[in-house]
């Protein structure tokens, strides 16, 4: 029991970050759906609507993850653009590529309902996306960490 308590204490900040990441993700899902539904409603092709809603969602996610989840204080425009590109790539990987592969496996190979399969995919893609954001997209170099401390 002592070891379990110590593991929680050691990982408390990461657990809190993960919960915040989930909150941002839920709001993103809602925003992406509203944008998508609106664009389809005004007769934009669903493929274009999906691309636009995905981009809006990633941009929203980037902003809130930078400010609220990972508290990235870096204000250099070059670093912000690089982080944004990394976030876009990680979401493209987990949201589009990995998501479609998982849907194929769950629906076509395992015969899981097409309404349940995307929810199962989240079990894999959300933690992976969190790690990609934490360890890659918002990872600060030692130099940037030192500059932010000073």
Structure overview:
With about 150 residues, this protein is an all-alpha fold. The chain has helices at about 1-40, 45-70, 75-110, 115-135, 140-150. It is globular and about 45 Å long.
Write the layout of secondary structure elements.
Layout: H1 2-41, H2 46-69, H3 77-109, H4 117-137, H5 142-149
What count of domains describes the coordinates? Answer: 1
The tally of strands reads: 0
Give the SSE order as H and E letters: HHHHH
**In whole angstroms, how far apart are the ends?**
40 Å
Question: Would you tell me the overall average pLDDT?
Answer: 82
> What gyration radius follows from the Cα positions, in whole Å?
18 Å
Strand content range: under 5%
Q: Overall 3D geometry?
A: globular
Biggest sheet statistics: none
Which short descriptors sum up this protein?
single chain, 150 residues, mainly alpha, 84% helix, globular
Quick gist of this model?
With 150 residues, this protein is an all-alpha fold. Helices cover 84% and strands 0% of the residues. The chain has one domain.
């Amino acid at each position: 029991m002592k070891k379990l308590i110590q593991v929680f204490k050691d990982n408390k900040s990461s657990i809190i970050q993960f919960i915040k990441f989930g909150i941002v993700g839920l709001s993103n899902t809602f925003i992406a759906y509203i944008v998508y539904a609106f664009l389809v409603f005004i007769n934009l092709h669903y493929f274009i609507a999906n691309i636009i809603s995905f981009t809006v969602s990633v941009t929203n996610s980037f902003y809130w993850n930078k400010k609220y989840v990972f508290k990235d204080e870096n204000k250099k425009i070059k670093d912000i653009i690089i982080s944004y590109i990394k976030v876009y790539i990680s979401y493209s990987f987990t949201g589009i590529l990995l998501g479609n592969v998982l849907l194929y496996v769950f629906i076509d190979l395992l015969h899981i309902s097409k309404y349940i399969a995307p929810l199962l995919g989240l079990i894999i893609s959300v933690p992976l996306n969190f790690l990609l954001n934490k360890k890659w997209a918002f990872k600060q170099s030692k130099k940037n960490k030192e500059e932010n401390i000073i």
